[in-house]
From TrEMBL:
It comes from Saccharicrinis carchari. Transmembrane segments: none annotated. Belongs to the CinA family. HAMAP family: CinA_B (MF_00226_B). InterPro entries: CinA, CinA-like_C, CinA_C, CinA_KH, Competence-induced_CinA, MoaB/Mog-like_dom_sf, MoaB/Mog_dom. Gene3D superfamilies: CinA-like, MoaB/Mog-like domain. Coiled coil: none annotated. This is CinA-like protein. It holds the Pfam family CinA_KH. It comes from the Bacteria. Residues 4-171 form the MoaB/Mog domain.
Amino acid sequence: MKIEIITIGDELLIGQVIDTNSAWMGRQLNNAGFELSRVNSISDSEEEILNILHEASQRADVVLMTGGLGPTKDDITKKTLCKYFDTQLLFDEQVFEDIKNLLKVYVPNINELNRQQAMVPANCTVIRNPVGSAPIMWFDRGGTIYVSMPGVPSEMKNAMGNEILPRLLKRFSNGIIVHKTVVVSGIPESSLAEMLSEFERSMPDFVKLAYLPSAGRIRLRFTGRGKDKDRIERTLDKLIAQLETIVGDSILAYGDLTTVEVIAALFTHKKISLSTAESCTGGNIAHQITKLPGSSNYFKGSVVAYHNEVKINLLNVDSAQLEQNGAVSQYVVEQMAQGVRTKLGTDYSVATSGIAGPDGGSQDKPVGTIWIAVAGPNNIESACFSFGSQRERNIVRSTEMALVMLKKMVDRDRS
């Protein structure tokens, strides 16, 4: 069984509105055991809507549409659906009553545009919308189900959760889908794919492996499909155990966790404390840490030492060594890490110093040169990275790598 999503609206294509509906629906469908095969975003154009409906009818068992159901002239979905299904719009008294009840608090006099929203295609099954003025429309033709829902996310979610998914589950016998994720860091995607080529060839047909790269890390998502959940679970667990023998300590986390979530769990469990000293990352490491609730249990604070005077006066970096080596150097970043750890009295600390860009680089230290240090009770470790010329990317990559280095040190110290 295949499901397609069609999101309708010029605002989606010009970037004025981000299509969050498809992502949300995809998660809900997946959790219910359905397979989403395609997502399309199209303009408020009769021709585009008709074309995509015709194409989808050749591929999909269920077509879910959102958008274009408002009362304005550019909302043409209903009229186009009438043309596609060779029917006409009829006035629905129940829908009109729902609209009046919904709007009476805000609109004293119902106008013609509001009345037009109660017009629905004659051959659809109308599903009431308790949280909006646009009704949900369900069509069943030629073995394919078509559902048209409002594009407003809250209305779409109410329709999907309370009406559409229950009807699909009742109509179709779907299988079981199990996902398990392993997060790997420190290995480029191409290198990891090469390492896992034989491993992937040996996987059973009902399991797929997806590579989901982001800054400094790769999420390996195992997906098993079938009827026997226990069998799928056992198979995925065995595959993950095999994966461990291949990538070893490059595994950062089990489960779909961010690196900062891994750090939060680790430091909370170990009852240890953390501080940061940041130059090129400008406080982004501290920001990512404190976005999570409960971070005050382990995170004491941060010094954003953007200027050299702050490095010297607050973090006790030796001025002569700073002058000799430069701010972007192993010596300075290690002194920053040790300085903030001592100043704030924490078990561990992280420091960054680099050239985020787009200017400020030199032949010896080009833009993207980043030094990162982590300090703990037993030692200080540092490394130099080159992340490229894009400022925001350098900040994100530096933040990620600093947290990865921190986790590895804590794992070694506390194992």
